[in-house]
Amino acid sequence: MAAAAAVAEAADPTSCRIRAAGEPLALALPVGAPPRSQVRIATASLMAAGYGGPDGHRFDAVLNATTGFAVGGIQSEDVFEAVDFMVSSSLHSSVVTARLATAFLCPGGMLTFTGSVAALSPQPKLLAFAVGHAAVHQLVRSLAASVGADLPADAVVVGVVPEVLDTAMHRQLNRGRPDDNWTSCDVVAEKLFAWASGTAGRPPNGALVSVTSTVVEAGRQEHAFRLINTPSYVQTAGY
After folding, report:
1. Among 70, 132, 142, 226, which residue's Cβ finds the most Cβ atoms within 10 Å?
2. What single string gives the DSSP state of each residue in 173-212?
């Protein structure tokens, strides 16, 4: 089983780093390049490494681990820059990942993106952050409808929607320590590996799955992965 994680980081804008010493494989895309160029560079690098094409290897799972964070509302001085940043870090990176999946994901494989619980409710002080992740949620549902056409047959598109992940950046913004409801990235990684390893227990195509954690006793958390209800079209009272 092979899994690819597309991770944007500072790099030469004309190259792509591939770490394949063991599984899963990690693909570091050049931040300085436009999305179309990122796809071209990544495709060339993966093809050169023996992936894709009529006889090349394909991945059981393709995951986008790139996201961003921005604070502020509509009157913030940098609201436009914040929106641009969130669209680039969350949406553009997800579209790049999806485009690569059309060529490198195997039939029945899993394509996964990172959303946020914050994008499911009004966020006047996290405007750009919520908008960027809401777009990813929509992308998940739209891509799910393209399985068997643009995406390989029997593939599953899933959005992981965490409340708060325990990351170095979040700790830096929180006096250097996690809160009780934060979820370890290892917990999410283990769940993704289980989903990628077989179809049993895997969420349905197009699912958004919330990730929450609660403390049940001293030093021990309980983690929950739940389907988010996303009806296509809900009609209520007329106006």
Report:
1. 132
2. TTTTS--TT-EEHHHHHHHHHHHHH-STTPPPTTEEEEEE
Q: Could you give all domains of the chain from N- to C-terminal order, each with its CATH number? A: 3-227 (3.40.50.720)
pLDDT of residue 171: 66
Tell me the C-alpha distance between 38 and 207, whole Å: 27
Per-residue model confidence (pLDDT) at position 138: 96
How far apart CA 207 and CA 67 sit, in angstroms, is 19
Q: What is the pLDDT of residue 128?
A: 96
pLDDT value at position 177?
73
Task: Tell me the helices (H) and strands (E) count for the chain, helix number first.
Answer: 6, 10
Closest by CA position to 158, among listed 94, 196, 205: 205
Give dist(CA 125, CA 154) in Å, integer: 40
Cβ neighbour number for residue 177 with a 10 Å cutoff: 9
Looking at this protein, which amino acid is placed at residue 7?
A: V
In the block, residue with structure tokens 């059981």: 60
Give the burial class of 163: count Cβ atoms within 10 A of its Cβ; 0-12 exposed, 13-18 middle, 19 or more buried: middle
Q: Give the span between the Cα atoms of 73 and 129, in whole angstroms.
A: 10
> Which residues of the chain register pLDDT less than 50?
1-14, 20-22
pLDDT in tens, 28-46: 777 778 999 999 999 998 9
Region for residue 170 given its phi and psi (left: phi exceeds 0; alpha: psi -120 to 50; beta: otherwise) = alpha
